[in-house]
């Protein structure tokens, strides 16, 4: 019963925070969407902030931890590992869209607040950035990456491209083929938009 109630509250909170934002979502709305009472949120989480921190724990376990493990296991060079980054996060976008979008949107809503939620979201993004920067640095050392491109900014560009892609997929919903969008982003990331001369 406890686990099921926590799961229902978490699902409802993910959905509402993605749809309305953290600040615009009340605890009563979350409780109603979960079919529970507002008191249940206080019983299990003690506050709205702790509820969000719990959601970020879920995101880290289901998305960040599995992504880092996937990147570590991926054979090949920088291009293969960056492709694995896009593939894995895109799969998360299909299987766990509210979790991935919640992280993206919370990172925007809480940016520079300096509170626990801001620090937690930033720490997750720092893991992504650190993993990507290490891949790119290694790729540059092996001659796979243009040595004039700054690694820190290139890692940020991968994350920005990813987040923008996920937000656009979310905005357009059924009117866009998400898998095709991911392939287009990846191809453009590798080859640009100028036609290749044979």
How would you explain this protein's 3D organization?
The chain has 198 residues and is mainly α. It folds into 2 domains: 1-46, Orthogonal Bundle (Arc Repressor Mutant, subunit A), CATH 1.10.10.60; 47-191, Orthogonal Bundle (Tetracycline Repressor, domain 2). The chain is 78% helix and 0% strand. Helix 3 (38-45) packs across helix 4 (48-73) and helix 6 packs across helix 8 (151-172). The chain is elongated.
The global form is elongated
End-to-end C-alpha gap: 63 Å
Uncertain runs are none
What's the total number of strands? 0
> How large is the count of helical segments?
9
Rounded average pLDDT: 92
Based on secondary structure, the structural category is mainly alpha
Largest sheet: none
Examine the coordinates and then state which fold CATH places here, giving the name of the CATH topology of the largest domain.
Tetracycline Repressor, domain 2
Entry keywords:
single chain; 198 residues; mainly alpha; Arc Repressor Mutant, subunit A; Tetracycline Repressor, domain 2; 2 domains; 9 helices; 0% strand
């Amino acid at each position: 019963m406890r686990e099921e109630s926590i799961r229902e509250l978490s699902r409802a909170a993910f959905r509402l925070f993605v749809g309305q934002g953290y600040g615009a979502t009340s605890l009563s709305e979350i409780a109603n969407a979960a079919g529970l009472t507002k008191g249940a949120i206080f019983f299990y989480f003690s506050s709205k902030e702790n509820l969000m921190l719990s959601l970020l724990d879920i995101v880290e376990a289901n998305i960040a931890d599995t992504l880092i493990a996937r990147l570590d296991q991926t054979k090949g060079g920088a291009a293969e590992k960056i492709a694995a980054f896009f593939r894995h996060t895109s799969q998360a976008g299909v299987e766990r869209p509210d979790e991935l979008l919640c992280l993206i949107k919370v990172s925007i809503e809480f940016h520079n607040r300096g509170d626990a939620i801001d620090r937690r979201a930033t720490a997750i993004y720092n893991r992504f950035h650190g993993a990507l920067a290490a891949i790119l640095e290694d790729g540059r050392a092996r001659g796979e990456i243009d040595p004039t491109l700054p690694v820190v900014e290139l890692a940020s560009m991968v994350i920005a491209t990813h987040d923008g892609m996920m937000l656009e997929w979310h905005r357009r919903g059924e009117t866009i083929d998400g898998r095709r969008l991911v392939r287009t982003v990846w191809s453009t990331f590798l080859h640009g938009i100028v036609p290749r001369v044979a």
